[in-house]
Amino acid sequence: MYIVTAEEMYDMDREAIQDIGIDGRILMENAGRAMSDTIEARIQKTGCIRVLAGSGNNGGDGFVIARTLLDRGFDVAVVQIVPNTKISGEALVHKNLLVACGGHVRVTRDLAAVREEIDGADVIVDAMLGIGVKGKPREPLDQIITLLNQAEGYIMAVDIPSGLPANEGVAAFQAVQADETMIAGYPKMSAFLEATRAYYGRWTTVSIGLPAAVTAKHGHRRVWMADDFQAHMPERKRDSHKGDHGHGLVIGGNAEMPGSVAMTTTAALRSGAGLITAATTRDVIPVIAAHCMEATYRTLAATDGFLNNETSIPFDAYDAVVMGMGMGRRPETGKLVERVIDEAACPLIMDADALHHLKPVLHKLIQRTHPVVLTPHPGEMAMLLDVPVRDLLQSPFSYMAAFAENYQVYVILKGMFTIITAPDGSQLVSTAGNQGLAKGGSGDVLSGIASAMIMQSQQLPEALANACFVQGQAAELLTDDTHSVYDLMASDVIAGITDVYRTWITD
């Protein structure tokens, strides 16, 4: 499932109509009928439906919805909140069809009249404004939006809640707070942004009949789903041995934070790594061993319990390196991070304190010939970018694409919706997980899972997306069964990896 900007969606529509030759009236009919099916599933036949229609494609979809539900025996009427002169093209065709079929359209922008129409309605269909909105709605649309947000009926938005920007980077807006949004074609960027996603309510996509030849050209961003995980997760052969599944090195830990590197090590093994060596201080090794007997160890030199740069590491013995968990921010530890960047001739995952040490030496990433994966949360990413967190969260897709292309790295921006960005700017979004992951240690677990995934026979973007899926699904399965989002701990998620594989991978 692609994620598109407003401009990309317009391009898809235009190419389908002009290049392929699909009549725009057919696309509108497809959208309205598919949305009618969704509405019908939400309301009893005796219920009352009111459609608030504006101009453009959204209004046209509203007229198709009203006609379709009228034909199916529902009590439905349209409140047209723009003058008749604003209804043209395909929307006018479908309005005339509605009227010819006996449908009722009341043209009014009067607040009292609109209130009269929606009072008592069981479902209110918001088909007023579409994805092309610029700035805050003008009067009286702003007042109608306020009125709609105060209504008691179940609000179902057509494609996007009216007034909500489709793209990222917009801070000031006024929008309908929908209970549910029926997205035409593909979800828009704002469905995945912290400031805007809640306005959609629950959302589903409906097909409008866009040809694959058109949509594939705009597939720069995709949602990573369960069927993607199943299609890309490598099969484990019956005659395989531990060497086939990678030998990873985990570098981290200090006397004050031994648990983080223990979780990364355990998560890597639980996720399918053939062998994991934990490289840490002498004091931390017994802590890891108490939780994970299967790991091997390499003792690194330390100063006051924190790693330094005085121990040689045979990087050619490893298929992947992950570092940063519990390292601390001592200058001597920073020298070790810099050395790993220079010498590790294999994929390198950098998390937690390694990201702090990375900032002064970002330029070194471009010089590497092997992949680098960064796994920041928004605060860490904002630090690397030198921007406020609020700016990053308003435009995460753009910031991540620019950063990944500039430094030729892979970035996993962690959050409710996790964005995985490749060096070419392409992006995958994982929606797996819940608020139970908002706990210390969750990032350590993800780094461990990711290290195991990148050592299997799959492309790196897909491997990282699979890692996010496994962690998120483990949280979801656990809170559905034995845990709550309050008590879930990172160590529980490690144990829950088993359930993910048993649920989604079939022999």
Automatic annotation (TrEMBL):
Gene giving rise to this polypeptide: nnrE
Keyword NAD: yes
Textual note on the cofactor: Binds 1 potassium ion per subunit.
Stored Gene3D superfamilies: 3.40.1190.20, YjeF N-terminal domain
EC number: 4.2.1.136, 5.1.99.6
Domain of life: Bacteria
Lineage: Bacteria, Bacillati, Bacillota, Bacilli, Bacillales
The protein, known as: Bifunctional NAD(P)H-hydrate repair enzyme
Domain YjeF N-terminal: 9-216
UniProt-annotated binding residues for (6S)-NADPHX: 57-61, 130-136, 159, 326, 377, 444
Described function: Catalyzes the dehydration of the S-form of NAD(P)HX at the expense of ADP, which is converted to AMP. Together with NAD(P)HX epimerase, which catalyzes the epimerization of the S- and R-forms, the enzyme allows the repair of both epimers of NAD(P)HX, a damaged form of NAD(P)H that is a result of enzymatic or heat-dependent hydration. Bifunctional enzyme that catalyzes the epimerization of the S- and R-forms of NAD(P)HX and the dehydration of the S-form of NAD(P)HX at the expense of ADP, which is converted to AMP. This allows the repair of both epimers of NAD(P)HX, a damaged form of NAD(P)H that is a result of enzymatic or heat-dependent hydration.
InterPro entries reported for this sequence: CARKD, Nnr, Ribokinase-like, YjeF_N_dom, YjeF_N_dom_sf
Catalytic activity: (6S)-NADHX + ADP = AMP + phosphate + NADH + H(+); (6R)-NADPHX = (6S)-NADPHX; (6S)-NADPHX + ADP = AMP + phosphate + NADPH + H(+); (6R)-NADHX = (6S)-NADHX
